[in-house]
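Fold this sequence, please.
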Amino acid sequence: MTRRERDPLVVGRVIGDVLDSFTKSINLTISYNDREVSNACTLKPSQVVIQPRVDIGGDDLRAFHTLVMVDPDAPSPSDPNLREYLHC
C-alpha cells in the first residue's frame, strides 16, 4: 500500500469527494485548548466549544490560504450527508 493510499484524507474520502488532490506547501497547526488536531483525530463536541487556534506557517505575509475543516463521516459513516455543513 502506498503512502498516498494510507493518507487519512484519502481514506476518509475528503480528497476526492470534498477536495481535489493537492500538494502541501506550508505548515498548518490547529489546536483546541492546547490539544493539537491531526488528520483522522476524533474530538467530542465538548472539546470544540471554543474557537480553535490556527497557526499558518510561511514567510510571505502577502499569501492567501484556504482552511477547510470537514467531518467526512458526519453524522455517520453510512450517511455522511452533513460532512460539508457550513457553520455560521
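The longest helix spans residues 14-18. Helices lie at 3-6, 8-11, 14-18.
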